[in-house]
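We modelled the chain as a single entity of 490 amino acids. Its sequence is:
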Amino acid sequence: MGESTATNNHHHHHHHNGQVYDVSVNMPMQFCSKVVDDDGRPQRTGTVWTASAHIITAVIGSGVLSLAWAIAQLGWIAGPTVMFLFSFVIYYTSTLLADCYRSGDPLFGKRNYTYMDAVRSNLGGYKVKLCGLIQYLNIFGVAIGYTIAASISMMAIKRSNCFHASDGKDPCHMSSNPYMIAFGVTQILFSQIPDFDQIWWLSIFAAVMSFTYSSIGLGLGIAQVAATGTIKGSLTGISIGTVTQTQKIWRSFQALGDIAFAYSFSIILIEIQDTIKSPPSEAKTMKKATLISTIVTTAFYLLCGCMGYAAFGDLAPGNLLTGRILQPVLASRHRQCSHCHPFSRAYQVYCQPLFAFIEKWAAAKWPDSGFITKDTNIPILCLKQPYKLNMFRFVWRSLFVVSTTVISMLLPFFNDVVGILGAFGFWPLTVYFPVEMYIAQKKIAKWSTRWICLQMLSFACLMISIAAAAGSVAGVVLDLKVYRPFKTSY
């Protein structure tokens, strides 16, 4: 394929004022340093395993932390069932999405590099703007979620140390704000790294880290069950009496949102698919990768969620790493940083598309502004090439991080925020757009059996999303009754 385009290029002349310019003889020369793919981009090298690793890294993040709480709301029967249902839906819509990476022919069709590109080439019109809006709001929300989760986790460590030092006599009240600010500052630094996605070792490191830290949660659950010798929890979840009838309903809905959040990874799938080498077609490889990663994350989530519930029963905390119960257990020092890494990596992975989008848009809108387009070279010790400082990138990314940090300080109730995000991102990005794009791409006839089934799936998921959003909003309303901004302490 690459060869044929290269040879065609030589016979490609432009006629202009009767003269013949041979334009593209030089074209292959620029790329001699790197082998290129059919679209002139550097050769992709991804495999099933790298793709699965990417997905798993991106998914197993802060979602794990509220799962024990979610299962506690639903109970031993409904909890795992709902998780299986979600994982099935996610896997299915991800396979639909994999087919939308190339428009037309699955091997040689035009590539879509991002989720937005796929929506643009398959649906077009106002839906592209709608998708962009939801996607970027979602990313903004995820950034807030990660800031809250990271600071809460760092705080849990600090408190457990303080707890230990005083042998549990000091209640160790502290504010989460300094931690949020610290996290924000590290993110400002990280966000200035251009091409964050090319640092593959970071991805591997982060994958290991997020597993470590989720397994801490898991280990704590197992330890607790072993210590007490009883498996807590009930078949129907938290009992009415502990909470009122209406609260039980709202919290069950919110639990759906939390689980949806733990599974919402469609937004990054196309970007990951864009790293895969072909043949076989990228879609084929991607479907395998999604299957592997869905199975791994579901198994992992069930373990974490169920162990947390078995350990703490109805009292399972909204964020596993902060529940009071864990304070003494968490104190061992060597776990100190395992909490912060996955968040900072995940924060960057999620925010990069948004950063890139705004920068591209600004450069197109004001092409002559030096502030936006000019790069200043700053030599840095021990780096081969100097660091390119772009003023606009610096200012805009810093502002972004600052705003998410401030909002996190105002909104510290982790699992409500997670529930709202899960609810708002889940249906449009995970179900609606993939289904619509697939219908458009495969030209599925209206009212055919296939079409009706897809629409029913989409409608059912919409209902779940609405219920989850309602439950989470109800949760926030309840929390706000007892809440004082900037004063959060645990």
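As a brief sanity check on the tokenised model: DSSP finds 16 helices and six strands in the chain. The chain has two domains: 1-43, 46-481.
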